[in-house]
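W.,

You were right to be curious about this one. When I first looked at the sequence I had no strong expectations either way, so I just let the prediction run and decided to look at it fresh. Below is the sequence, 449 residues in total, followed by the output.
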Amino acid sequence: MISALVNIFKVPDLRKKILFTLGLVAVYRIGAYIPTAGIDGAALAQFFRNMASTAGGSLFGIMNLFSGGAIENMTIFALGIMPYISSSIIIQLLATVIPQFEKLAKEGGEEGRKKLTQYTRYGTIVLAIVQSFFISLWLENPAHFQGLQIVQFPGWGFRLLTILTLASGTAFIMWLGEQITEYGIGNGMSMIITAGIISRMPVAMSQLVILLSPFSPTKRQLDIFTLILMVALMVFVVVAVVMITQGQRKIPVQYAKRIVGRKIYGGQSTYIPFRVNHAGVIPIIFAQSILLFPATVAGFFPNKILKGLADALMRGNAVYFILYSALILFFSYFYTAITFNPADVADNMKKFGGFIPGIRPGQPTASYFDRILTRVTLPGAIFLALIAIFPSIISRWLNIPFLIASFFGGTALLIVVGVMLDTMKQVESQLLMRHYEGFLKKGRLRSRR
């Protein structure tokens, strides 16, 4: 691994990509500290510190995690990349129900992909404007902040300024992510989300040091044996997440030989990988959004019924755990069903002469895919449900802040592990490609001599 890390900076093209990616991530993190005008940042930070134990159980807590703490200080990047994630999910759903979008996704080719990307950008801006408007209303009401006055001069001037600032910040983050994807290494949007999550680690470590209090035994709230248990659990969870993320069921596919002119095509064997966790973190995001929606609405529009429903769905209650797990299971199957169509895959295989040994082409192959996908998705969905509720269990069991417990599972750990694995694969492929080409060039020169 050390030699691979050294080789990364020996390849000029790969070195430029990595430095370019790190530079844009640094720009993103600098912007996460530029405050929005008209807001008392100290009062807002005090409010989030007061509700630190439950910050992970609100919609703003999730947004704060994805934005790397930007919403806690209400900076110009407070919305983070959440509007883009929501817009891309909406476009994916529309591509399965609207014929025009479906045609662009399947038959449009490169032009169709560009149009869908443009629609995603437009949707991102619209969602950013709507979210920033409601955030400005939320900031103006002292009742939401335990009587603290967050906005110095409330009114439409502040609202319009907030909408312009936050929507522009989201558009700039979206541009940064696209630049990283095109000229850097890895997926730009995923890298930005990961940078925001990792930026919360120093805060979590400082809270952990305070709980340990190594120089003040009288103030110690966490003993060394609990710390060892936490480290062991962390290693176990990370290993489990890597195994489930990488786990897949390989379906063997055989292609028949075809004679076109004087050339013979096909005849090779390959496989179709069915991932155990095909939906990724999307089911957790969907489930969290639905469960936290009543609490968010109750915060904007006080109502006894909404408040009672929000209290019943608070993180830590039995109803919360049951509904949360059930929604994750449902959305795992739902998202897998809309992103993978067994009938289309079976038809494409039939067109190119592909078949599964022992299975007839056409509808029998589609039924076989559907049956295998249903069985493979179940363990992945159960694992997602367990890993999603694990931070809440750890927080209550070990009596530690939720920010520390959030790195033991949930959305944060899944995203960080997934992005790290994908980035490592891309770097490794770049290294292998460069070494392979360099070897062939030397061989050609020697043969000529």
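Here's what jumped out at me. Residues 13-201 form a domain with the Preprotein translocase SecY subunit fold (CATH 1.10.3370.10). And, maybe more interesting for your project: The beta strands are 248-255, 258-260, 263-265, 269-275, 354-355.

Coffee later to discuss?

I.
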